[in-house]
Structures are given as structure tokens and as C-alpha cells.
Amino acid sequence: MDFESWVLEQSPFDGYGSCPVASCSGLAASPLKLCRWHELFYQREGRPGGAVLPEKWARYYEVYGKPVPVTYADRRQFDQWSRTARSETLHGQLNLRGLRPLMKAEIQWGLFKHTEGDRARWPLPWVQDLVNFCRDRDLGSLADMDVNQCTHFTQMIARETLNELRLIYFTPETTREAGFIETDHFGIRFPGRISHYDLTGVSQRWLRDVLWDYLAAILRSPKCPRTGATFDHARRGIVSLSAFLEADAREGGHDPNLLQAKHMETAWNRICCWNDPNRRRSRPGCWNDATVTCSSSPESTMKRTCCTGGSTAWTGSSPCLRWSQKSGESQCRRRTLGLKHSRCSSAGVG
Ligand SMILES: [Zn+2]
After folding, report:
1. CA angle 181-161-92, nearest 5°?
2. Distance from residue 80's CA to the centre of ligand 1 (Å)
3. What is the reported pTM?
4. Each residue of 65-96: pLDDT tens digit?
5. Cβ(170)–Cβ(151) under 8 Å?
6. HSE of 227 in the Cβ direction (CA atoms, 13 Å)?
7. Who surrounds ion ligand 1 at CB < 5 A?
């Protein structure tokens, strides 16, 4: 009988099943249930859990069709190791095995979006580090990930992927609720910027909504600026105004019904003091390091205000407030009516 004829008559042995390592697609090479590569890796790792086969197991057990007993010093440790062990890295391939389905889809989407446009280079080992990080922690989504625990490069990849996912998981309406705006939702991407624009520095919810509506109106306008400078200016101004109200107005300015024109007058006076170092020193009641108090977050209030400065606070916030008072948004108009000030001359988004 020739070899070809003999092979055709043979039937396969049962085998030992699949390698239990979550990221491995290999077949088990022995009753230990590990593939050949992971058997070697298990030895190199110091055999966690102490799983061993009997000596000469093939001769004394398998030949006679007996089941081969495996003994463990700590079965739980072995199972833990086999779930999370690293797999062989193949050149040019990314191993996504063992990831939760949603996590896998999120990383695939992030990789796909990264191929669009002129983006930074992502070496595969960096991406694999992110995959391994998520797999080791059995994360269901990138949103569950604490990016600060990763290495710098893994953080960079995770943050960019999260930015892309945010465009899918959030609608424009839900971004307003969450305290940010995505320029991509309006078909606009400013040069050198990402789509995400954080507005949570504004602590008063009503004021944050006014800012969101104003920025959305800019993005919808045919006169939308070509750069993000207008956005930066408006946010800086409203964040500063928010800090002024937090420190000065009743209930931190969180209830717009309690706000009156005098609050804006006071804010303006303090801005003037801020701009004039002599007045700032001579008037202890004005805005300075010693007098700023805020029941909710004094440190953040001070930081926000010091970073922005007075004039910026005014010139940045006034276009937004003027727009809200003149806009057709009755809610916006009502909310900012109390803050009406003589300096709020007519202006608006084109
Ligand atoms: Zn394996």
C-alpha cells in the first residue's frame, strides 16, 4: 500500500482541545491543555499554580487509553494564569482574541478611523499594549478604562479612540447634557483641533447650556469662523463669569432667577480691579487671592479666574450673553435677562 492510499484510510485522533489562554487560537499539545508555545511560556514563567503531568504519561496512560491525571498545587492560580497569559506576537498582526465583543469593536473602529487623514504613526506594539491592558482587566468598553493607569503611548491611543467613539455614543442633545460639544456633529473640524470641546469648567448648569447653545449657533451659522479661536474666547469668558458668580452671587449663581443686573455690575467692577494691580491691592473687597471664596470649589474657582484674567472674562463672555438675550431661544433669553448690562450692545451670530 502506498502512502497516499494509507493516509486516506486514517481517521484523526481526538486531540486535547483548544489552548485555554484567552488570546490564543492554538490547539492543546498535551493533557495539560496548553498549546506548544504556551507550554514553553508556562515553563519560562515559573509554572504558576504548579500544574504537572505524571512522568512518562504517554507510555503509562495514553497507550492504554487511560485518562491522564493532572495535578495542581493551586488550580485557581493556574486558571488565572491561563486566562491572562500573553500570546505569541506575530509580525504585522494585532491579536484581539479574548476581548469582550464591544471592546473589540471599539478598538477596530478606532484603528479604522486612525487610518483617515494625516495622523500620527501607531506602532503595533503600542496598540497591542492597549489590547492587553483591556483584556487583562476584562473591560467591557473603553469608557470603563482608567487611562491614567496606562503608559504614555497607550494613553494617547486610548484617548484618540475615545474621541472617535464619543461621536457615535453621543448625539448633539446628549452632549449638551454631558457638558461638552462635538464640532464634528455639525460637520466642522477646526485646524489642529479635535472634535471634542469640554464645557464642564462652567459650574452653573444654566450658564453652561447658554454657552452650548451659543457655540452650536456658531457652528450652524454660514459665518462659522475657520479657527477655534472664537470658541476658546467664549469658553474662557464664560468660565470666568461662572467663577465670579460662584464666588459672589446668591447660591453661587446656580439659580438664574436670583440673578440681577447688580451681579454683572459687581463682576465688572471686580474685573476692573483685577486689571489694575494698584486698585487690586488697595481694595481688599475686590478680586484677589485672599478674598476669593467659593463654597463648592474654591481652588478651582481661583484657578479658573487667575488663568483667564479680567478683560478676557468680559470680552469673551459678553458676545455669548448678548446673543442669548437676542436669540429666539426663549429659555436662553429668560436665563440671561438678569445679567443684562449696559455694555451688552447689540451683536449676534450671523
Ligand atoms: Zn496557546
Report:
1. 160
2. 14
3. 0.66
4. 888 999 999 999 999 898 888 888 788 889 99
5. no
6. 5
7. 19, 21, 24, 26, 35, 38
Q: Where are the alpha helices (DSSP H) in the chain?
A: 3-9, 36-44, 57-60, 75-84, 101-114, 124-136, 152-169, 172-178, 205-220, 229-248, 261-275, 277-282, 298-308, 310-326, 330-337
CA distance 142 to 159: 9
> Which residues are registered as beta bridge partners of 182?
196
Cell 436669540, located at residue: 327
Measured distance CA(70)–CA(16) in Å, rounded = 13
C-alpha cell at 97: 482574541
pLDDT tens digits for range 190-221? 998 889 999 999 999 999 999 999 999 999 99
* Buried/exposed 146-157: b ≥16 CB within 10 Å, e otherwise: eeeebeebbebb
Whats the size of the chain, residue-wise? Answer: 350
Tell how far the Cα of 333 is from the centroid of ligand 1, in angstroms.
64
Dist. CA 7–CA 11, nearest whole Å: 9
